[in-house]
Design a protein that fits this description.
two-stranded antiparallel sheet, 2 domains
């Protein structure tokens, strides 16, 4: 005899749930999505983090590499500061929406 694959189980109390239920009937726990979609905020956070790392490396390289190969240190440091401020405010906003 095969188990019923259409039925879900609650992670809190292990009661059976229908696939379309969002809240457990036994313990009122929230049922997480099976395949949550990535949000625009998470994608934008990834882009900002990658830009931050790139500009951090460029600012470090600008100290040692001649000026023709990388942008000047002042320009990369200013861009790094701006991206850092954007990154910190973005993390603050996403943390506020999670609560």
């Amino acid at each position: 005899m095969r188990p019923n694959n259409n039925m879900e189980h609650c992670r809190q109390c292990n009661s059976t749930l229908a696939p379309e239920e969002q809240i457990c009937w036994a313990c009122n726990a929230q049922v997480p999505e099976k395949n949550p979609k990535t949000t625009l905020a998470s994608r934008f956070t990834s882009v900002v983090n990658v830009l931050f790392v790139i500009f951090a490396v460029l600012a470090f390289l600008a100290l040692f590499v001649p000026e023709g190969y990388v942008p000047p240190f002042k320009r990369t440091a200013a861009a790094l500061l701006v991206i850092f401020l954007v990154r910190s405010s973005l993390h603050t906003m996403t943390d506020a929406t999670k609560r």
